[in-house]
């Protein structure tokens, strides 16, 4: 187990170094940071002095390792557009993105697994047919179109829910949340549904396919022949083995929820990290773009590491294979 974790950690460090190299290349060669930081009236001597102070005249290798060291401390420089530390900007927007991702992931996992099991156990049911037909909507339609449709129906026509913003926010000191206010809870419903729809349909179809395959396995037939109840067979044996491959896909999708919340945050004007990144791209705010790239890479690396460990714990074949390899 320890060797498995150390191997995955080494791979994660290598991935982060590659991403750091890409971010450094973007930071160093996309635009001139000095031209973005000084005024147009600044003299050439002032620009050279700032370039020397920022270390832009140092060797490239030295600049890269300094960039990695600063990144490990959460320091990515000053935003060209807002003239504020990038780390403070991301930390101020992070609670909104995490809450949106948590809400959408909860919806996707809960409904995806429940509907996937239901459609697998009752494949001929008209309700199952309707659910499978509806799932095509989540797979086929782009996220921004789903968001606009929900805004039109529930915000414009019915006027049940707000169409933009995060609502009232409660400041807890170390965290600001909208989940403790009525307007905050109402504001998160539409973007959470929009962001979760694709993930939910994907998880549902995966659970259904794996469940149908497991139900045809010989050990399931043997369990029924032993006189076990349908509940014990379906949930104690079939569902447990179905979740083994689902864990991997679900982990990747949870990372995608955070990484690709950009579109949803833009449609609903959600004040998260994704909307900050979009605004930074529009004005080529390179420090924010580089920090966002590192943040998303870290999210995927951490989630993949957790998924690998869970997969190792759930699937006994990996433990047996690892023990034989070590022996």
Describe the structure.
It is a single chain. The protein has 327 residues and is mainly α. It has a domain at 87-275: MetI-like fold. Helix content is 77%, strand content 1%. The chain has a two-stranded antiparallel sheet. Helix 1 (2-29) crosses helix 4 and helix 1 (2-29) packs antiparallel against helix 13. It starts with a helix and ends with a helix. The mean pLDDT is 80.
Describe the structure concisely for a colleague:
This protein has 327 residues and is mostly helical. Helix content is 77%, strand content 1%.
Taken from the alpha-carbon principal axes, the silhouette is globular
Distance between the termini: 13 Å
**Order of strands across the biggest sheet?**
1-2
CATH class of the domain at 87-275: Mainly Alpha
Strand-and-helix sequence, N→C?
Answer: HHHHHHHEEHHHHHHH
Topology:
Elements: H1 2-29, H2 33-37, H3 44-53, H4 60-72, H5 86-121, H6 126-140, H7 143-157, E1 170-171, E2 176-177, H8 182-215, H9 218-225, H10 230-259, H11 261-267, H12 273-282, H13 286-314, H14 316-326
Antiparallel strand pairs: 1-2
Helix pairs in contact: 1-4, 1-13, 5-6, 5-8, 5-10, 6-8, 7-8, 8-10, 10-13, 11-12, 12-13, 13-14
């Amino acid at each position: 187990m320890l060797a498995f974790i150390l191997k995955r950690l080494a791979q994660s460090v290598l991935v982060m170094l590659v991403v750091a190299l890409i971010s450094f290349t973007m930071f160093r060669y996309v635009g001139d940071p000095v031209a973005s930081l000084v005024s147009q009236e600044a003299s050439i001597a002032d620009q050279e002095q700032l370039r020397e102070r920022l270390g832009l005249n140092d060797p490239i290798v030295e600049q890269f390792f300094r960039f990695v060291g600063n990144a490990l401390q959460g320091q990515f420089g000053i935003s060209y557009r807002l003239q504020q530390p990038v780390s403070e900007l991301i930390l101020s927007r992070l609670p909104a993105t995490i809450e949106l991702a948590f809400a959408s992931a909860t919806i996707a996992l809960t409904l995806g697994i429940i509907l996937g099991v239901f459609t697998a156990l009752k494949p001929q049911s008209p309700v199952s047919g309707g659910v499978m037909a509806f799932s095509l909507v989540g797979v086929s339609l782009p996220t921004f179109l789903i968001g606009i449709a929900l805004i039109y129906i529930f915000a414009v026509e019915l006027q049940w829910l707000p169409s933009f913003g995060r609502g009232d926010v409660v400041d807890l000191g170390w965290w600001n949340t909208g989940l403790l206010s009525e307007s905050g809870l109402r504001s998160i419903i539409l973007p959470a549904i929009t962001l979760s729809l694709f993930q939910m349909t994907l998880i549902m179809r995966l659970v259904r396919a794996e469940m149908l395959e497991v139900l045809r396995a010989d050990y399931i037939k043997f369990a029924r022949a032993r006189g076990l109840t349908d509940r014990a067979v379906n949930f104690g044996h079939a569902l447990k083995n179905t979740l083994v491959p689902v864990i991997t896909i679900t982990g990747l999708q949870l990372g995608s929820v955070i990484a690709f919340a950009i579109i949803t945050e833009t449609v609903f004007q959600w004040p998260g990290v994704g909307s900050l990144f979009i605004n930074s791209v529009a004005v080529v705010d390179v420090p924010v773009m580089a920090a966002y790239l590192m943040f998303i890479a870290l999210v995927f690396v951490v989630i993949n590491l957790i998924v690998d460990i869970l997969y190792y714990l759930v699937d006994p074949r990996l433990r047996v294979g690892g023990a034989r390899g070590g022996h």
